[in-house]
Predict the 3D structure of the following.
Amino acid sequence: MSAGNKTIRVGMIGCGGNARGHMRRLVNIAGVELVGLCEPSKDAIKATHEAVPETEGLPVFEDHKDLLAQVEMEAVEISTPHTLHYEHIVDSLRAGLHVCCEKPMVCTVKEAKSVIEEAERSGKVMLVSYQRHTQAPYRYCRDLIGSGKLGKVNFITALQSQNWYQNQVGRNTWRSQLKWSGGGQLNDSGSHLLDIVLWMTGQQPAEVFAYMNNLEAEVDILSAVDVRFDGGALCTFSVVGHAVNFFEEITIWCEQGTLGIRGQEIWLWRDEKKQVISGEELGRSWTPDGNFIAAILGEEEVQARPEDALKVIQLSEAAWASADSGEPQEVQR
């Protein structure tokens, strides 16, 4: 079965800027049809029609339950405030639909475990939109580490900076409000950083010690997070939410080599000489939306699973608890 002989009808829960990016990708996948929108903001619906003309004339609902009840479809994509994800995911799975949800999947370990149970019970595809799982540089590192050719992982540093404070807190967006976001930059773009390190290395966090500074906001802005993994590997995550620029780098020290991710390049050391790997050498890149549709059709495995998202929120919860208590915290399993 392929998209060429079966139409996959997709509804959208949430129509903000991020969701419109998903919609633009979906309408360019053969055999996919957008069939309904859920969004309480009339301005967001207007912007959606302008950005994605294919959505003109689609039924629009303010409540996701009305979309699920009244529109015939096979799947939904969810891009809403983080603390709403759990209800939207569970209701959609229980309606018999495949689900692609933006990150973070949910905002508590309890909710993540519940989603995994619901997805298994439903037998439907459940995918989290951690797009780096379908991007070549990260897949290259995951495959190389997984091959064992570099030996075991000993130490990792991961840094992300961006002007999150001004863009979110300064404009009082929902991301800056704890009741909607579930956390600050660590739970937003920082979630990508935590996820990709865990996914590439296969490491399971055991204990966390964290300092955080909210800069008088409701949510974390600056985070310094140290992690001890099962097996003894160590990691330092630096999430800098008050910066003038976006910058990111990840370095992974293994027994027999070092991997550095610098943009779309991989820097690989097997001795003192650096090898730069880029372009076609890194392999294929595609999108979570493409993976979602292919997984529904049985053509690909889900690349970012709810189990991956569980590891992220396990680490995040422990980091928040450590920052609050001033003590190291064991990671809840």
Residues 163 and 243 are 5 Å apart (CA to CA). The mean pLDDT is 97. The first strand starts at residue 8 and ends at 13.
